[in-house]
Amino acid sequence: MSAAPLSISPLSSGLQDLLNDFVSVQDDADGISMDQEQVIVLVKVLTALQALATNLEIEVRCHRDNEAGRGARTFLEEEATGHLADILPEVEGNVVRPAFGKGERS
């Protein structure tokens, strides 16, 4: 008998439980039937697992979009900085430094 795989989420653990239920009867599959109550429970479990899978897919998609956006933001920042450097006048010699101090007043 092999060790049970590591379950890291409600989705994977729920699927593993469902798989274990079916694996336990796979050798005696002839003549197996399910009553209505068992079918209802199975449908509820599958519905919950499907909802978890949908939420996980949305979360992964958001993270991927965020990562793609990060690259685009970096590119746009570099391009904007390059264009602004071309447009703005040189800073050397253009800075006015007022003398605010306790020196002589004119």
Structural account:
With 106 residues, this protein is mainly α. It has a domain at 50-86. It contains 2 helices and no strands. The model has no long low-confidence stretch (mean pLDDT 79).
Query: What is the SS-derived class?
Result: mainly alpha
| Helix content range | 55-70%
How many beta-strand runs?
Answer: 0
Distance between the termini: 96 Å
Low-confidence stretches: none
Query: What is the molecular shape?
Result: rod-shaped
Order of helices and strands: HH
Largest sheet: none
| Count of discrete alpha- or pi-helical segments spanning 4 or more residues | 2
The amount of beta strand, in percent, is under 5%
Provide key terms for this protein.
rod-shaped, mainly alpha, 106 residues, 2 helices
List the SSEs and their pairings.
Blueprint: H1 10-23, H2 36-87
Briefly characterize the structure:
The protein has 106 residues and is mainly α. The protein has a domain at 50-86. Helix content is 62%, strand content 0%.
